[in-house]
Amino acid sequence: MTDQEQKRLNTMNAVLVKMEDIKNSQKSLIEKIGIVEVQLFDIQSKDLDKELEKVMVRASDTLKIIKQATEAFEMKRNRLENEA
Predict the structure, then answer these.
(1) How far apart (Å, rounded) are the C-alpha atoms in residues 51 and 61?
(2) Which has the closest alpha carbon to 79: 9, 3, 2, 25?
(3) Rounded Cα–Cα distance for residues 31 and 28 (Å)
(4) Distance (Å, rounded) from C-alpha 30 to C-alpha 56?
(5) Is 84 helix (H, G, I), strand (E, B) or coil?
(6) pLDDT at residue 84 above 80?
(7) pLDDT digit string (tens) for 31-58?
(8) Other CB atoms closer than 10 Å to residue 62's CB: what's the count?
């Protein structure tokens, strides 16, 4: 493996670590929204419930996109590593 290929592989590994951090942050956001939704049962805030539902849907969609992008990037990194 050339120095340039190793540098590229190292950069890709660093990106994958950051993507994992992003994925974990998104999971944490979803968990926190769920906690707030449960807490709202007692006070019946329909407006906030409605808005939180929108946020939850978008957060879930974003998590799916992040997972797919990470998997695709990881496969690309693995190909590079195997070709070297």
Answers:
(1) 16
(2) 9
(3) 5
(4) 6
(5) coil
(6) no
(7) 999 999 999 888 888 899 999 999 999 9
(8) 15
Which of 22-26, 31-35, 38-42, 67-71 has the lowest average pLDDT?
A: 38-42
* Degrees to nearest 5, angle at CA 66 with 84 and 24: 100
Tokens 């996109």 found at? 65
Asked whether 12 and 82 are in contact (CB, 8 A), the reply is no
Question: Which tokens in the block code for residue 29?
Answer: 């956001």
Contacts of 2 (CB under 8 A, 6+ apart): 84
- Does residue 33 contact residue 52 with C-beta atoms inside 8 Å? yes
The model's pTM is 0.84
- Which amino acid is it at 51? E
How many of the other CB atoms lie within 10 Å of CB of 59? 19
